[in-house]
Structure formats: structure tokens, C-alpha cells
Amino acid sequence: MKSIPPPGTAPSEPPPAPSDRGPDEPPWRVWTAPAAVVLGLALGQFGAIVVEIIGHAAGSSFTNPTPAVSLVSDVVVDLAFVAAAVYFAALHGKPTPADFGFRRIKLRVGIVAFLTAGLSYYLATAAYASVLKLHGQDKLPSELRVNQSTAALVAAAVFVCVIAPMAEEFFFRGFLFGALRRWRIRIFGYEIGTWVAAILTGILFGLAHTGSASSQYLIPLGFLGFVLCLVRWRTRSLYPCMALHSFNNSLALGLNQLHWATAPILGLAVASLLVIAAVTGPLSARSAPAPA
Q: What are 22-40's pLDDT values in tens digits?
């Protein structure tokens, strides 16, 4: 027999449905990870073709595009992956900046994560390069002809040290890693889904640089992608990831390609971090701080 609540009392609300989301896991599902990769690739290729056609009409060559065409194509490709991430995230409700990792953290926590991850990456890369006797350089700065004009140098620095770290961290650590973390994998009673997600994201991150980096350095870049996932996981914030990514690109551009001294490289790194903070910092104002 159905019970009737006493007068003046409201019927009790049904208990909320249990959630399978763990701490700091986004609402979008695992399947959105490969779907976003495919859509990002498709949109990026389509956008790059459009840019090359427009550039050809303006005098650029399909086989040897101008630095401007190459740069705009690279920006379009990165933005295509950002658009793909936003699209699939929006399928599961209105995403918030915190879902992607835009959370404030204590400065001490960020510095420790930055130094620990950076030291691990650079030591591993040095050992790898020493064993295999590698001396390769990135292809991208050469393709953008940074040594031929100041305008090309400034444009390349903005892309390499500011735009790429923001866009790639948003997609790989902000979206992709979060989606893959929801894949529940247990071995001998231990949940290893996060580690598998970090490994897969690192592999994809390395492969994403196939066209811009020498093939011999794809493995270290994959390891960097893995380390950045651990930073995102442990700090619950995307900011240390963007900072280390930007610093690494500034170091690679200034040291390997331009052969700058220490002071200009540090100036480039600091300026890039300030721009990234100015662009992405306001997003954290709408998010709760990450726990220490």
C-alpha cells in the first residue's frame, strides 16, 4: 500500500543516481577521445588545404609554401583539435574551465611540479641522446625561416612558445587525458586506468609532432607527454603543464635553432609565460582552486 506523507511535509526526493566519475574526471566519456582525434585530424587537414589554396592564389607554392602560409596552417591545425575537444565535451553538457584543468594552485605546488617533471624529462632525454648519439633539431623553425626576417622570428616564437603550448595542453592534457582516465582497468586488484591513459596520451603527443620534429626525438617527446599527464593528474591543474611545455619550446627554439645566449632564452620563456597567464588566467577565476 502506498504511504501518504503527513500534511505539511513534502515527499522525499529520490536519491541521486550514482556517478562513475572519479576525482577530477570530466563528464565526457572514453569514446570521445578517439573520436576527437579523428575529427581534429579531419578538420586540421581540411583547414590546412584551404589555407594552402588561398596562399597559392596569393603567390605561394604548394611544394614550398611561404613562412606565412606554413605558420597559418600550423595554427589552423592546432585550433582544429581545440574545436574538436570543445565539440565532444559539449555533447555531455556545458563544460566548465575546471573540467579541462583551469584551476588555481598554490605557487609552491606548481613550482615543485614544474621542476620535478622538467628535471625528469631533461635527464631522460640527455641519457637517450647520449646512448644513441643524437644531434637532431626541430624542423618547424627551419620551415618558418626564422633566420631570414624579424617578422618570421616573432611569428614563429609566438606560435611555438605561446599558441602551441596552450592549444596542445588543452587538447592532450585538458581533454584527451581526462577522457581516457575514465577507462576502468584493473590488474591484480589495482586500478591502472590513469597510468594507461597517461601512456596512450604520451604516445599520441609524440606522434603529433611527426611533421615538426626529427623522428629520432619522437620518443623523448612521447615521454614528455607522459610526464605532463602525471603533472596534470597530481596537481589537478593545466597551468604547470602549459608552463613546462612553453619553457621547453622556448629552450628548444632559442638554444637549438637560434643559438641564443642564456639571457635572451630566459627572456623569451618569461615573456611567453606572461602571455599565456594573461590569456588563460581569467579562466581559473570561474573555477574552484585545486586541493593542495
A: 778 999 999 999 999 999 9
Condensed to tens digits (0 to 9), the pLDDT of residues 136-156 reads 566 566 666 666 678 888 888
Distance CA 43, CA 279 (A): 24
Q: Give how far Cα 47 sits from Cα of 54, 77, 173, Å.
A: 11, 7, 23
Q: Residue 44: count other Cβ atoms within 10 Å of its Cβ.
A: 20
Q: How far is 139 from 185, CA to CA, in rounded Å?
A: 38
Alpha-carbon distance values, 87 to 56, 67, 92, 95, 162 (Å): 31, 30, 9, 10, 23
The domain locations on the chain are: 98-284
Grid cell of 29 as nine digits? 566519456
Spatial distance between the Cα atoms of 26 and 182, rounded to a whole number of angstroms: 8
